[in-house]
Structure formats: C-alpha cells, structure tokens
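Q: I'm writing up a methods section and want to include an example of the input and output format. Could you take the sequence below and give the corresponding predicted structure tokens, formatted cleanly so I can copy it straight into the document?
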Amino acid sequence: MVKKDVTTLLVEWRQGNLQALNELTPLVYDELRRLADRQLRRERPGHTLQSTALVHEAYLQLVDQRRVHFQDRDHFFAVAAQIIRRILVGYARKRNASKRGGGRTMLTVDESLAVPDRQDIDLVAVDEALSSLSELDPQQGRIIELRFFGGLTIEGTAKFLGISSSTVTRDWTVARSWLYRELNRKGAYGS
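A: Here is the clean output for your methods example:
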C-alpha cells in the first residue's frame, strides 16, 4: 500500500472520499498537537485548557469546514492556526469575564515576536493588536498569524501566501516592530 501525503488526502477528502479523512487524521493530529503545545507553553502557569482539548476542538472545527477547500498541507495548517487563535482568545475572554476586575490572561512570548526584556503579554491584547494590524496591512497581519499562531516557517508562509520569502521576511520584521509598539503603548506586557 502506498502511503499518501497530507495534500493528496485533503484533495481526496474534498472529492468526497471519507476514507481519506480516516487516513488524514493521524497524519495531522501530531502536527496539531505540536501547534497546541507550542501555544499552551506560552500561557501562564497552571492554565486549565489542556493541549488535548485544544487539539480536539480545533480538529472538530477543521473537519467541519464545509466551505473551505484545503489546497494543500500549508493551507490546512494556516486554517488550523486561525482556529487555534480563536479558541485561545475565546477561552481567555471567557476566563477574563468570569474574574472580578477583568483579569488578563497572560501569554509567554518567544523571541520570534517580542524583545528579550519582555516575558509575558496579554493574549487578548495580542488578538486586538493583530486585528488592528490586519486592518492596516492584511498581509502583515496574516504573516504574524501564520508564523506566531501557526508555527509556519518563512518559506511555508511565503508558499501559502504566494509571495517571496524575502517579502515575508521584510513584512515579518516590520509587523513585529509595529505589534511591539502597539502592545507596549497599550501596556499589554506583564512582568
């Protein structure tokens, strides 16, 4: 039996082959788990949302995408990045609303998005700033989302967006600077 890749299985699934979905699940589950683990490692200690629950929720939403026709592996994981972002931000908003005084859900930011002297950042503030950036420059907003929430490489982001790697690198640098300034201005950084 020939082992199929993610892109082939996505195409077959789109064409109505339910067996392709069964073959696809174990191939994408590990990658989704890595994305979820990566995001949850950034969350505050003692976070109550577990990576397994995040993966399951994201996967259920991914396989329920009736209007999305996944073009390839990168497209699938780009959509997964959006879904994971929405789940985490929704969870943070609910948690913040349930706390007296509207406590913030803090996220530990890695070196790819922040400056070295900043450790924690308000997840809802990141989402709001990213939405503002996307209004100003949709491509830069998408690059931040794909790289930060989706874990895509420069090359994977470029392929997905249909632009050059040098454009992604340039926009990534500019967008990170803008995002840092915006978050700093809003006082979104913790200790």
